[in-house]
Amino acid sequence: MWKEKVDSTNNECRRHIDSLDNLSFVAARCQTDGRGQGDHRWTSTPGMNLTFSMVFKHEGRLEARDEVALTHTLTLALLAYLDGKGISARIKWPNDIWVGDKKICGMLIEHSLRADKVDWSIAGIGLNINQTDFPADIPNPTSLKMLTKADYEPAVELETLHKEICRLSPLMYSPDGRKLLQEEFGKKVFRLTEAL
């Protein structure tokens, strides 16, 4: 579902977690308090980018020790989506998406545990789409428009990305699937200490 304005899409999902279906999403044209990892904020010009959160209800199928499989699923889905745009991207540990030495996407994943299982997860994703002018305190941003010179409709792009996430998500629920995700993630991930 699309919202005109929320504090953060992760917060909105958490407020309505009982009524939201597995693999559903909440997207917002404007976030007033978008969050990133730790105490980082996610800044986005209203209506220009894709800011959304997706709900995963695991129904006892994901052990707490395997929760990283969701990170693998989401980052690889984003790489596949960008590849479809002709953009070669990589994963900066643990889950940012970079093109060259610039960041195009970040995410914040939150889990709710029940004993040794992940009960549900909320994955907040911010993908720079049409924005070309960023605040000076954001050191290395890029966007689809900056890379391709084209304009994009966020709702259309979300539909395409959502399909890619849904295509890969079943893999996290089997040992073979998790192994495949981990191997592919390992091929695409880097740390900032490594040479760009």
Radius of gyration: 16 Å
Instruction: Give the name of the CATH architecture.
Output: 2-Layer Sandwich
Could you spell the SSE succession in H and E letters? EHEEHEEEEHHHE
Name of the CATH homologous superfamily:
Bira Bifunctional Protein, Domain 2
| Structural category | alpha+beta
Poorly predicted sequence stretches spanning 5 or more consecutive residues: none
Q: What's the CATH first level?
A: Alpha Beta
Average pLDDT across residues? 92
Oligomer: single chain
Rounded to the nearest angstrom, the distance between the terminal CA atoms is: 37 Å
Number of strands: 8
Helix content: 25-40%
Portion in beta strands: 25-35%
What's the structural domain tally? 1
Strand order of the largest sheet: 1-2-3-7-6-5-4-8
Query: What's the number of helices?
Result: 5
- The geometry reads as globular
Largest sheet: 8 strands, mixed
CATH topology: BirA Bifunctional Protein, domain 2
Describe this structure in words.
29% of the residues lie in helices and 27% in strands. It is of the alpha+beta class. The chain has one domain (2-190): BirA Bifunctional Protein, domain 2 (2-Layer Sandwich), CATH 3.30.930.10. Strand 5 (96-99) and strand 6 (102-114) form a beta hairpin. Helix 2 crosses helix 4 (154-168) and helix 2 (68-83) crosses helix 5 (175-188). The radius of gyration is 16 Å and the shape is globular. The model has no long low-confidence stretch (mean pLDDT 92).
